[in-house]
Every structure is written in structure tokens, then in C-alpha cells.
Design brief:
A mainly alpha (310), B alpha+beta (369), C mainly alpha (292), A: mainly alpha, disordered C terminus, C: 292 residues, mainly alpha, MetI-like fold
Chain lengths: 310, 369, 292
């Protein structure tokens, strides 16, 4: 009994064990998640460049942003890209795919869902390569090959339709997330509801409109909010396919920040300014999340299932 | 209203046969029940009648019109689900109005009909609520309203009472029966509860493993079960079923087991004597037995093993070797464990089944054909 | 009421409507999926044929596009097999680290009490709100400070670290599903907590480990953005860097080479995908629901 309270040492030993199990995860998360968040926020107040010196310049980067003549264009690009892709593909197309693939035979439905999921797991460079072939400005690409075969002149698709290109190429990947979530939500609807509707005289379209859509309202809103954030910050495919061009016509906010930091053509590595741009983007994302929270009344939606259980 | 005829109806899910060669007729305005343990194919049958499932083989006729390929919405059936399936995002009013809305009935007409049917089932004050705010019994009535509002030819009820508590179940039972009589609507009730089936319907179809066992009025099922399954399934407390051998000792017919010998009435002796087998299953309902302290007629002596007071009477358990035997004794008779009593079965109400499980009466009837 | 409301005349019409609806569903799905099908088809056709007439009509069969396997198309580029080995090393490294780290952390989070447990759970959720990609600049700074720039180890650690919260959430779900009784009876039978974890719990969450391993491997194998940003040295290139270079050098010209290398790169992905697509769908949905 002299060696202290055995209960306490036992508990301390338990904590130590838990801590050891957690340690590798904590280190990784701290180093590559938490630390970057803080460093980004602080770096935004410096004019750090390739020399990596912490020269604090107060709000300098943010004043510069206000004067940056490219910012309005990039803001518009970001909005069109984010909400265009969201509205056409990530939500609408994802929903249509989910509705159709759950209405036809299960095996065929599964095949189409797998087909649409494939791009998400394809290495980005390969996915980009495929699109660069389809959209090639030369007659060796698919679309221009078709035009030439019909006796038309080739078109520089990417320069002509930069917005369309980034929306479609990202949308085909983006639709699969909504598709999967909606599919599992649709499958979770008790079939009694659908049978009742069928006996009540509902056609497929009426079933979808009156029963399915209202019952998957929550995943619909969730995907809308969640994918807004994903789209706001995704630029990998744009970088690969259009590189933001021509002349910033398809450059979105996150890509602009990336280019400011790492692009060779700028000559200097403007880490400070880029970090400030990233910080603003995170702020925009936060505001969007709060807005969605209010508009969709997520709190209410989360409480609803409790009432639904009878 | 409509009559229903099922002809050689079969439904297979892959290799599993859910319903096997079912023939059934329901008269116009009749209330029948499909009764059986879970998985016996009764709900599958109901969903085929509603048009949700397509029969693998066989035909369904409404009023002698073949409806196999008619869409559910064109069958004029109302369906009440076990889960009620009230659309959780619609008010009670909208739930009830839904079938009418889909049928493009004018709004005023919808309003009138919804209120009419709500009045009929006494839920008028609930019309503005959401389904989640209702009690089980209220939900049940809303589901009934939704089924009735389109004035269906046929009402299908899938275990409509199983989610209600015991008291409410008895009230609702009477309520549904009243409605059915008032509207004169042809109705099919699916249930696993024999009390429900026997009290509510005019005829009961007992199903087991996809096969129809017996179809007839409740009394017939109770008094003349066609086979062992029906005999064991119908009746509460259940019928005593004992494997016996038929023998004649000293020229007198008797049923013999390792533990007792039950003398038989002469009439039974004649029937069983004509059969080409000696092994039977004896069925005696606990309520078809008298207990006495003195030997009377064809009786056997037993020792009381356990008693269960049931309120209205006492369930007395006897034990003969491996065989246990239940007798429902009236309240007035005082019985204690260890008492030795004479068990006197009502010879008229004995049931005897052949090795194949068929009632001896049934075999006789088939021979007569 | 009419005696015969059940006119079988409605059935033909109803059936035809149903058929038409089904048919148009298939037509829509096929048309909408055409770009995907054509795109992946091109990988195969383009890789094994010479120049495609009009961009899509194959002429003669050839393996000329595959010469990169024995002869580098550019003197500045590394050997393809070395690149392939790098890619595998990266994918395997991410997989091992992410699986080990998130499984052990998930066990603690799911099964042990310790101060700050709920805080850790909440913070993994909040961190997900910060898109990894916006942290790239700071990550560059951190790797540079740690001396891990231009090294595959840096990319492995960053990618694994960013996937760990996802892994923890998925694995926590699997651990949560194991009845407490099993673990308690192991403890009563005389196992230490660690033995319980190693001998009783781990075998039971094998499906979960398989799921996040597949996920991590696919992510590591496909890694692009961290690689081109953090690694310049050709000796540390992966197939992503290789194709990136082809796109950069021969933009809009050598489609045969592009298709061949892409197919070479895609091959394990396609194989994995065909074998595990159902699992991938489940984990994608599960990860999202877990708070990703």
C-alpha cells in the first residue's frame, strides 16, 4: 500500500497505453494538418518568397488582393465553375444517375454506377490525358476528328469553351459522389412507401416527385453543401487540362493561389500572397458552410429522423 | 364490389417457392383471412393480388376479368400495410388525398371525400398533423382512410393490427369489421393471429409453406381440421396431439400408447377398423375433456403435474411418461398438483389423423367420392 | 358502379408505357456514359495502333508505342521501370502508414477512455473542413524545414497524414460494431489490452482494414499534385510525373505514347477496380457518412 493508490496508477497506465496507440496518428495530424492550417494563416501576413523569410507586412497582401486586376475575373470564374458544376453535375446528374440506376435491373444499374465511379479512381494525369485527346485542337483528337470527317474545320475547344471544359471534365468525376450517396439513400427508403404509392396510382415520375425526392431531402442538401466546398478548393484537373487558360479564362481562386506560389512563369515564388489567397478561400468556404447551415436548417433535418420513427 | 378468384397461383423467388399452386375464391363483399405462420406465403399472395408482385404461374381474376397484367393503380384495390407506410413528409390530409390527387380528382371533390372518410373513421381532428405525431392506433386509422378514400373494389389488409397494443387491437378489430360491413367491400386480411382471423372473417384460408391447408368458415376449421397442421395451428390453448396405436383388446376398440390405454366408442372402432393402418395421431382439444373423480365411460386416469390459472378457467397439465396432456377445467373445479383424476374425452370431438397427417374424416370423405 | 371496372384494355397501354420508360432510361444512361466509355476505350485502341485517322479510326496494329518500356523517349527522363518502382513504393508506403496509424488510433478512439477523447474526435471532423489542397503552400514549407523536399518519403507522409482522419472514421465504425462482450471475455480469459487488440480485435476488423488499404493504395498510386509540387528530381519520379512530362513535352502530338503509358499506369487501377468496386462504393459512402 505504500506505493500509492493502486487505482490511480492503474488508470494512469491505461491512459499511457491509449496515448501510445494514438501517438503516430497525432503526430501525423499535427504535422500535416494542424500545423499547415496555422502556418498558412500566419504566412498570409508576410511577403515570404523563395528565400523563405518571415517578413511581416501586416495586411499588405489583402490590400494587394483588393487591387489585383485579375481578382474580379477569377472570382467570377470560381463562382461559375463551382455552382455550374454543382448544379449541372454533382447534384442534378448525380441524382438522375441514382434514380435511373435504381429503377432498372440491379446488375445493369451496378454496372453504370461502377462506370461512373471509375474516373474518380483514375490517376488524374490519365484522366486529363483522355480529355486532352478528346479536346485536342488538332485533327488527331476525337471531337475535331469527327468535325474533319464531316468536312468541318477543327476547333480549339479548350480556348473556345474554357468554362464548359472545366465544368464537364470536373462534373463527370463530381457526379459519382452524389450518385453513390443518393443511391444508398434511395435504397434505404422502406419499400412499403413505394408499394403504397404504386397502389395509390403513382407513375414512376410521380413516385420520384412525391415520395423519393422528399424522403432524400437531407442527403440532397448535404451533397449540395459538401460538394460546394469540394469544388471551391479543387483545381487539380483544371491545372492539368486547361492550366487555367487561355489568359486566366478558366483560372479559379484555388488555382490562382497555387500558381502564385509554385508556377514557374511568375518567376518568383510568392508564398506570402498565395497563403493570403488560401486564407481568404478558407474564409469563403466557412461563410458558405454557415450559409448552408442556416438555409437548409440542418439542425432541424438532423432532428427529423427521431420523429419519423413510429 | 368485386369477387376474386385465384387459379393455380404460384410465386417463386429464384428457387424458393413462396406460394405454391394456390386456388382460392372470394365472394363479392366477403371478408376472408389468410392465416399462417410467418413465411407461409400469405403476404406474397396479398401483394400479387395488389399487383406489386407478378405471379410466376397461374391467374388472378377480379369479377372474372383476368388482371395478371393490370397495373396496381388500375386494380382499384386499397392496401393497408403492416408498417402503415404513411408518407412521413406529408400531413395526414395529404396522405389521404394522395391517391385522389394522382387520379386528378378535382380539389373540391378531394376535400369532400377526405373529410367523408375521415369522419367515417373518426380522425377528422388529426387531418393537419404529421404522421410522426400520431399514436400507433391513429396511424392505423389514417392508413385505413388512405386505402378507403379511393372507394376501392377490394380492401387488402396486411397484418393491420400487429403493431397495436392488446387493448387497442380488440377495439380496432371491431372497428374494421364495422367499416367492412357498412361499405360491403370485399376484403382480405393477412394475419398470423388466429384470434384475429377467426373473429373478423367469414372464411379463413390457412396456409403453410406456400400451400393452402384448408379454406372454410372459422367453425369448420375449429371443429373439423383437415390435417395435422390446421389442427395444431388453430385453437388456444393448442390441441393435444399424441401418437397412438389402434388396437382391439377383448373385442373392444382402444387407442394404445406406452403409458395409457384409451377405450374408444364403437363408432370410432368401425371407422378405424376399415383403415389399412394401425398408427394414428390422436387430437383432443383441452376444452373437449371433462375431469372427474370417478370413472365414467371411456376414461383414463392421470395425475396432475402442473396447473395454470387462466382467469376464466384453469389449464391442468397431466403427464403420461413422455406425453404431456392439457385439459381446460372450468373455474368451479378445484384442482391441485398431485390429484389423481379421471380424464373423460368427448368421444364425438376426438380428432384422428393418419400417418400422412390427414384427418381420418377427410380420408373417409375422399373415399366416398 | 360499373360491374367491370377491371377492363383488361388498360393493360396493353400500361405495359407499353412501362417499356417505353425503361427503354428511354437505358438510352439516356448509354448516351450520358458515352464520353467515359469512348475515353477509356481510346486508351486501349490508341496504345496499340499507329496514328488514328480522324483521331479515332484505327489503322494498323503496332507495339511501337510501347518502346518506352525498353528505351526512354527522352534522355532527360528516368528509366520507366525505376519510375514504376517509385510509384509502387509510394502507394505501398502510403498504405502501410495509413493503415497502421489509423487502425491503432481508431481502436483507442472507439474502445478506450482517456481525457480528450471527444476533443480528438471533433478535431478530426473540423480538420476535414480545411481542404488539403489549400494547405499545399504550408506543407511545402514544412517539408522543406524537415528536409523532405524532393523525396518520396515527404509525399508519403503528407498523403498518409491527410488520409488518416478518414481512415480513423472508417475504422472506428468497424470497431464500434464489435460487441463489447467479445473484448471483455478476452480480458477475463487473461489477455492484456494489447493482446486483446492484436489477437481478438484485429482479426475481426479485417474487412475494414482491407477497405482502407485499397483506398490508400489507389490514392497513393494515383498521387499527382503533391508529387509535381514537392518532387522535381527525376530519380524520384512516379508514373504521374512521367505522364505529366509527356503532356508537357508533346502536348497535342504523340497520342500513341500518351495512351500507352497511360494504359501502363492504369492497368493495376483497372484490375483493382474490377475486383473491389463494390467495396469502394461502400467505403466512399461510409466515409462521407462518418463525417468526411
Amino acid at each position: 500500500m505504500s506505493s500509492g493508490d493502486p487505482k490511480r496508477t492503474g488508470r494512469a497506465k491505461g491512459y499511457l497505453q491509449a496515448f501510445l496507440f494514438l501517438l503516430p496518428g497525432l503526430i501525423l495530424i499535427l504535422l500535416f494538418f494542424l500545423a499547415p492550417v496555422i502556418i498558412t494563416a500566419v504566412m498570409g501576413f508576410t511577403n515570404m518568397d523563395y528565400r523563405f523569410q518571415w517578413n511581416f507586412i501586416g495586411l499588405g497582401n489583402f490590400f494587394r488582393m483588393a487591387d489585383d486586376f485579375l481578382i474580379p475575373k477569377i472570382l467570377i470564374n470560381t463562382l461559375v465553375y463551382t455552382f455550374g458544376t454543382l448544379a449541372i453535375f454533382n447534384v442534378t446528374f448525380g441524382l438522375i444517375l441514382a434514380l435511373l440506376t435504381t429503377s432498372i435491373s440491379e446488375r445493369v444499374g451496378l454496372f453504370f454506377r461502377a462506370l461512373w465511379l471509375l474516373p474518380r479512381f483514375t490517376p488524374p494525369v490519365v484522366y486529363a490525358a483522355i480529355w486532352l485527346w478528346i479536346l485536342s485542337p488538332t485533327r488527331n483528337g476525337l471531337l475535331n476528328g469527327l468535325r474533319v470527317a464531316m468536312g468541318l474545320r477543327p476547333i480549339a475547344w479548350i480556348s473556345q469553351f474554357p468554362w464548359g471544359v472545366i465544368i464537364i471534365t470536373n462534373g463527370i468525376i463530381g457526379a459519382s459522389m452524389g450518385m453513390l450517396i443518393f443511391t444508398s439513400a434511395i435504397k434505404a427508403i422502406p419499400r412499403d412507401y413505394l408499394w403504397a404509392a404504386r397502389v395509390d396510382g403513382a407513375s414512376w415520375f410521380q413516385e420520384v416527385r412525391h415520395i423519393v425526392l422528399p424522403l432524400i431531402r437531407w442527403p440532397l442538401m448535404f451533397i449540395t453543401a459538401y460538394q460546394t466546398l469540394s469544388l471551391l478548393t479543387s483545381y487539380e484537373y483544371i491545372l492539368l487540362i486547361t492550366q487555367g487558360g487561355p489568359f486566366h479564362a478558366s483560372e479559379v481562386w484555388s488555382l490562382y493561389a497555387y500558381n502564385k506560389a509554385f508556377s514557374a512563369y511568375a518567376g518568383t515564388y510568392e508564398f506570402g500572397y498565395a497563403a493570403a489567397l488560401a486564407t481568404v478561400l478558407v474564409l469563403i468556404g466557412t461563410v458558405a458552410s454557415i450559409a448552408y447551415w442556416k438555409i437548409f436548417r440542418f439542425r432541424e433535418m438532423m432532428a427529423q429522423p427521431r420523429i419519423e420513427v413510429s | 364490389m368485386a369477387s376474386i378468384r385465384l387459379e393455380r397461383l404460384t410465386k417463386k423467388f429464384g428457387k424458393v417457392v413462396a406460394v405454391n399452386n394456390l386456388n382460392l375464391e372470394v365472394r363479392d363483399g366477403e371478408f376472408i383471412a389468410l392465416l399462417g405462420p410467418s413465411g407461409c406465403g400469405k403476404t406474397t399472395t396479398l401483394l400479387m393480388i395488389a399487383g406489386i408482385y407478378r405471379p410466376t404461374e397461374g391467374n388472378i381474376y377480379f369479377d372474372d376479368v383476368l388482371v395478371n397484367d393490370v397495373a396496381p393503380k388500375d386494380r382499384y384495390v386499397g392496401l393497408v400495410f403492416q408498417s402503415y407506410a404513411l408518407y412521413p413528409h406529408m400531413r395526414v390530409y395529404d396522405n389521404i388525398a394522395f391517391p385522389l390527387k394522382l387520379a386528378k380528382v378535382p380539389r373540391k371533390e378531394i376535400d369532400r371525400k377526405v373529410h367523408e372518410v375521415a369522419k367515417l373513421t373518426k380522425i377528422e381532428e388529426l387531418l393537419d398533423r404529421m404522421p410522426g405525431q400520431l399514436s400507433g392506433g391513429q396511424q392505423q386509422r389514417v392508413a385505413l382512410c388512405r386505402a378507403l378514400v379511393k372507394e376501392p373494389e377490394i380492401l387488402l389488409l396486411d397484418e393491420p393490427l400487429s403493431n397495436l397494443d392488446a387493448r387497442l387491437r380488440i377495439e380496432t378489430r371491431a372497428e374494421i369489421k364495422r367499416l367492412q360491413r357498412e361499405l360491403g367491400i370485399t376484403s382480405i386480411l393477412v394475419t398470423h393471429d388466429q384470434v384475429e382471423a377467426l373473429t373478423m372473417s367469414e372464411r379463413v384460408a390457412v396456409m403453410h409453406q406456400g400451400v393452402l391447408q384448408q379454406y372454410g368458415p372459422p367453425d369448420e376449421l375449429y371443429d373439423r381440421p383437415r390435417n395435422l397442421f390446421v389442427a395444431s395451428f388453430i385453437g388456444d390453448p393448442p390441441m393435444n396431439l399424441i401418437p397412438v396405436e389402434f388396437k382391439k383388446t377383448d373385442g373392444k376398440p382402444a387407442l394404445v400408447t406406452d403409458s395409457f390405454v384409451l377405450p374408444l366408442a364403437e363408432a370410432w372402432g368401425e371407422v378405424l377398423g376399415q383403415m389399412d393402418q394401425g398408427e394414428f395421431t390422436l387430437g383432443i382439444r383441452p376444452e373437449d375433456v371433462r375431469l372427474s373423480t370417478e370413472k365414467e365411460g371411456n376414461a383414463l386416469l392421470g395425475e396432475v403435474f402442473l396447473t395454470e390459472p387462466l382467469g376464466g378457467g384453469t389449464l391442468v397439465h397431466f403427464r403420461f411418461g413422455e406425453i404431456s396432456f392439457r385439459v381446460l377445467a372450468p373455474r368451479e373445479i378445484k384442482v391441485d398438483v398431485g390429484d389423481k383424476l379421471w380424464i373423460i374425452p368427448d368421444q364425438e370431438k376426438l380428432h384422428l389423423f393418419t400417418k400422412d397427417g390427414l384427418s381420418v374424416r377427410e380420408v373417409g370423405r375422399q373415399d366416398a367420392h | 358502379m360499373a360491374t367491370h371496372r377491371f377492363t383488361p384494355g388498360s393493360l396493353e397501354r400500361e405495359r407499353r408505357k412501362q417499356k417505353l420508360l425503361r427503354f428511354s432510361m437505358y438510352v439516356f444512361l448509354i448516351l450520358a456514359s458515352l464520353p467515359i466509355v469512348v475515353g477509356y476505350l481510346w486508351l486501349f485502341v490508341g496504345a496499340f495502333t499507329g496514328n488514328l485517322v480522324y483521331g479515332f479510326v484505327p489503322q494498323e496494329l503496332t507495339v511501337a508505342n510501347w518502346s518506352f518500356l525498353w528505351e526512354s523517349p527522352s534522355p532527360a527522363w528516368p528509366n520507366i521501370w525505376r519510375t514504376f518502382a517509385n510509384t509502387f513504393f509510394l502507394a505501398a508506403g502510403v498504405t502501410v502508414i495509413m493503415v497502421v496509424v489509423s487502425t491503432s488510433a481508431a481502436y483507442v478512439v472507439s474502445r478506450m477512455y482517456f481525457p480528450g477523447r471527444s476533443m480528438i474526435l471533433a478535431s478530426t471532423l473540423i480538420l476535414h473542413a480545411f481542404p488539403a489542397i489549400t494547405l499545399l503552400i504550408a506543407l511545402y514549407y514544412i517539408l522543406r524545414t524537415l528536409g523532405l523536399l524532393d523525396s518520396l518519403w515527404g509525399v508519403i507522409l503528407v498523403r498518409a497524414g491527410l488520409m488518416v482522419p478518414f481512415g480513423i472514421w472508417v475504422m472506428k465504425g468497424f470497431f464500434d460494431d464489435i460487441p463489447w462482450d467479445i473484448e471483455m471475455s478476452a480480458l477475463i480469459d487473461g489477455a492484456t489490452r494489447f493482446q486483446t487488440f492484436w489477437k481478438v480485435m484485429l482479426p475481426l476488423v479485417k474487412p475494414g482494414i482491407a477497405a482502407i488499404a485499397v483506398f490508400a493504395f489507389m490514392a497513393g498510386w494515383a498521387e499527382y499534385i503533391f508529387l509535381v509540387t514537392f518532387v522535381r528530381d527525376p530519380n524520384s519520379w512516379t508514373l504521374s510525373s512521367y505522364i505529366n512530362a509527356i503532356i508537357g513535352n508533346y502536348r497535342f502530338t504523340n497520342y500513341g505514347l500518351l495512351a500507352a503509358v497511360s494504359l501502363f499506369y492504369m492497368f493495376p487501377v483497372l484490375l483493382f477496380f474490377l475486383l473491389t468496386q463494390k467495396l469502394l462504393m461502400k467505403v466512399t459512402v461510409g466515409g462521407i457518412k462518418g463525417g468526411r
